[in-house]
Structures are given as C-alpha cells and as structure tokens.
Specification:
The complex is a heterodimer of chains A (275) and B (165). By secondary structure, chain A is mostly helical. Chain A has one domain. Helices cover 66% and strands 6% of the residues of chain A. Chain A contains eight helices and four strands, in the order E-E-H-H-H-E-E-H-H-H-H-H. Chain B has 165 residues and is mainly α. Chain B has one domain. In chain B, 93% of the residues lie in helices and 0% in strands. Chain B is rod-shaped, with a radius of gyration of 62 Å. Classes of the chains: A mainly alpha (275), B mainly alpha (165). At the A-B interface, strand 2, helix 1, helix 2, helix 3 and helix 4 of A face helix 2 of B.
Chain lengths: 275, 165
C-alpha cells in the first residue's frame, strides 16, 4: 500500500481510484500502537460520542428537540432488544451494552458516507491517502469490538448467574459427580456434557472471530466494490451503490447488534428458573 | 495459535491496535452507559412515574368528584324532603292558628253583639220610659202651640210629616 503506484487519470466516465488495501494505511506509531487511517476515524467517532454524552448528560424532564431524538433512539434500542429477549425487564439489563454498540456501529458505518469526510487526504510516500478510512473496514476495529462484546458478556453472565454457576456451564465437574452418584449411565452422559462445556469455551473465542470477520468482510467488500464501480461507470451506478451503502451500513449494524443481543440473552437469567 | 495469527495477519490483524480498539470501546461503553443510557433511561423512567402518578391522582380526583356529586344530589334531595315537611307543618299550624283566631274573633263578636243587644234593649227601655214620662208634657206643649197659632194647611202638613219622621 505504501509503494508509490501510477494511477491513471480520471475521466468523465471513469474515476480511477486505487482499490483499498485490506490493511489500513499507517500514519505513524504511538509506542507499540500503530496509528492507521482507520484509527483516526475511531478517534473521530470517540470524540463525536463523547460530545453526544455531554449533551445527553444534560437531559431534563421536559425534553428539548435533540433530547427527543436521543429518547427515540433509546426507546428504539429497548424495543429492539425486547423483541429478541422477549421481556422488557431482562432487556433493560443489556440496553447500555447493546445500545452503545449500535450507536458506535451506526456512526462508524455511516461516517464514510458523510459528504466531505472523503475529501481529507494525507500524503504518505508521495501518495495521497484518504485520512478517514471506514473504521469497520479495518479488521482490528471489528476485532476489538467483538472482543469487548464477548468480555462484557462474560461480566454480565457472572453478574447475573454468579461466578460459580456461570463457570459451571463451561467446566461441568459438578454435573459429572452428580451424574455418577445417580447412575453409571447418567455419569457417562455427563462426561459428554463436560466435553460439550469445553467446546463452549472454544465457541466463545469463535464468536469473536465470526462477529469481527462478518462485519469487516461486508464493510470492506462494500468499499472495494464502490471503487470498482467508480472505475467502471462513474456517473449513475456508483451513486446508486453509494446510496446502497447507507443501507449496507445500517443493515450490518443491525445484524451485528442482533447477534450480540442473542449472545447476551443466553447469559441473562431466564424468568422463573433462575438461569 | 501462530497459524491463526498468520491467517489473521493476512487481513491486517495487529494485536496492539486491536487491544487499543478494545480499550477504546470499553471507555466509550462506560461513558455512554453513565452519561447517555443511564441518564436518558432515568429521565424517561422519572417522566413515566410522574405521568403515572398524575393519572392516578386524576383518577382519584374523578372518583372524589363523582362522590361529591352523589353527596350533593343526596343533600339536595334530603333538603327538598325536609323543606316539604316544614312547609306542610307550617301550613297546618297556620291553618290551626287562623282557625283559632277566627274562633276567638267569632266568640268575641258574639259577646259584643250580645252586649250591644243588651245595651240596645236597655236604651230602648230608657227611651220608652223617658218618652212615657215626657210625652204628656210634650203633647201639652204641642197642643198649646197649636192652639196659640192658627194653623194653615201647609203648616199642618209640615207638622204631620215632622211627626211621622
């Protein structure tokens, strides 16, 4: 990516842009952390969300127009989670986690569509590179998000069910002992359950990969396709595709959030039986 | 593990950047939880409680109003009945009073009439006595007058009419 390449000049019908690299172009380093163009976008998103927090913290009983929008978003997230979890009380416990994720993803996925955002370039090794690369088109961002989701999910699970009870889903020693006390057959079945529990640990790591790769793959593919279409037909088709980008951004956010909500709902206490 | 890292490396995976993103998102999560979802959720809940309380108070007030209306109707009805009975009582007592006044007046009138009749009888009697006593004198005077003066026919008629009056 950092190699200087000859780019063909754009014409009325063809806009020649370089197909984005799978790794985000690097701007520099702060200690061991590489600052890539996607990192700049992440910082920008962080600033936007901090500003949003400042506005939200001034919420009053009689709302302003902006507070109305925030409340509509809050209600929308609550309804969305309730439709998956099935119970408003249980949904309320994960609203901050899922809501924060939805807000982050919608901003991250739609920010590159915002006019003028793509007009900022930085010169690296004689090459003009867009300063703001879509945050979710960098695997490191989606991986960081998925990791945070799975970590917070374990915290919610422990808080909801108690540490020992929650961990007993993964390491089922108690169930094996109980099974053998009842009968040999049940003991053998519980050994199968023990191994299933161990596989569950692996599946928790698999969730991180599946979530992060799905989002990254879709968002990166959209960006690549936009550049290809700009090169092929610069007039109408890319505009339609870029419009579709809004839909892709929102749909991918919802898919990610829906999956995460399902994961969270699995660790929440169920009504009646405790867990 | 190394193999997985190599595969992930082909999509640009970098541990440091990923962990930085992880920490960054946790910070965002904390801030949004505290200042956005916590605050907005609290405000919505407070507003919901205020509306709920207002509605329940309105419902209580409505019930109280209905009770007061019922009470008012009852009081008006009782007052009407009481008024009717007072009127009836007053009417009957007024009739009784009028009756007794009338009776008194009648008996008083009767007494007065009797008294007057008695007085009249006494007066008649005294007049008759007086007349009996003074009649010969008057007749004599009249006769003397008549004899002293020549009476004309017209004087005679006037005298007769005066006498008969």
């Amino acid at each position: 990516m950092t190699e200087a390449k000859t780019v063909e000049p754009s014409t009325f019908l063809h806009v020649y842009e370089e197909i984005p690299s799978i790794t985000a172009p690097t701007l520099g380093n702060i200690g061991p952390v590489t600052i890539a163009t996607s990192t700049v976008t992440v910082m920008f998103i962080t600033i936007l969300l901090v500003v949003l927090c400042m506005f939200a913290s001034r919420a009053k009983l009689i709302p302003s127009k902006f507070q109305h929008i925030l409340e509509i978003f809050y209600e929308m997230v609550t309804d969305f989670i309730t439709s998956i979890v099935g119970d408003k009380e249980r949904a309320g416990k994960i609203v901050p986690y899922v809501g924060a994720l939805m807000l982050y993803l919608i901003v991250a996925n739609l920010l590159p569509m915002f006019p003028t955002i793509g007009s900022f370039y930085v010169l690296i090794n004689g090459e003009h590179i867009p300063l703001f690369r879509g945050a979710t088109t960098d695997f490191n961002t989606t991986f960081g998000l998925a990791l945070a989701v799975i970590v917070t999910m374990q915290i919610v699970g422990v808080r909801e069910q108690g540490a020992l009870n929650y961990l007993s889903h993964f390491i089922q020693i108690k169930q094996v002992v109980k099974g053998f006390k009842k009968s040999f057959g049940e003991g053998m079945t519980s050994i199968v359950g023990f191994f299933v529990g161990l596989i569950e640990i692996v599946s928790e790591f698999a969730k991180i990969l599946s979530l992060s790769l799905r989002l990254f793959g879709n968002m990166f593919a959209h960006e690549v396709l936009t550049v290809i279409l700009l090169g092929a037909f610069s007039v109408a088709v890319p505009a339609i595709w870029m419009g579709m980008g809004l839909l892709v951004g929102v749909v991918q956010s919802i898919v990610f959030v829906a999956l995460v909500t399902v994961y969270y709902s699995l660790v929440l206490k169920k009504e009646g039986n405790g867990h | 593990m190394q193999e997985i890292l190599n595969i992930l490396g082909s999509v640009g995976f970098n541990w440091h950047v990923a962990i930085a993103n992880f920490i960054n998102f946790l910070i965002i999560l904390f801030l949004l939880n505290k200042f956005f979802f916590g605050k907005i959720g609290k405000v919505i809940q407070t507003r919901h409680d205020v509306i709920e309380r207002g509605l329940s108070q309105a419902s209580d007030a409505e019930k109280a109003l209905a009770n007061a209306e019922e009470e008012k109707k009852k009081i008006v009805k009782d007052a009407r009945v009481e008024g009717q009975s007072i009127m009836e009582e007053a009417k009957s007592s007024a009739t009784a009073v009028a009756e007794s006044i009338k009776k008194d007046a009648e008996s008083e009138a009767q007494i007065k009439i009797a008294h007057l009749s008695e007085k009249e009888a006494k007066l008649k009697e005294s007049v008759e006595k007086e007349f009996a006593l003074r009649a010969p004198e008057v007749v004599a005077k009249l006769y003397a007058a008549t004899l002293a003066k020549e009476m004309t026919a017209s004087d005679n008629d006037a005298l007769i009419s005066r006498m008969s009056a």
